[in-house]
From TrEMBL:
Residues 56-121 form the WYL domain. It holds the Pfam family WYL. This is WYL domain-containing protein. It comes from the Bacteria.
Amino acid sequence: MSYPLRQGAIMKSLSRRRFATLLAAFAGLPAAARCAETGARKIAPVSPVRRSDDPVVSTFLRAITDEETIAIYYHGGTNPGALRRFRPISIYRVEDGAAIYAHGYCQLRGEPRTLRLDKIRLA
């Protein structure tokens, strides 16, 4: 299921420059190309997460609102437990009741990444 992009709603909360940056990030995601090459399962967002009692999710939501980069330890990927600086763009679930994911820019890798929030510890 896909949701139409409502530019008016997004533009009210974001500056034009930030909106252009986000749009460019989504348009050229290298992760999508890697999924096609490797046959990996593609993650398609189903429902956005807007609030949570979980401290990690709450921190990510606040970082999105304030356009901040946060320090985290990610216990997944090729370098488990590595300290990363991550600037989240969106938080969503793939299915109702399933794991929560964050999409954003990882300074360690220098490119957009999707991280599973239950594998994150705040620094």
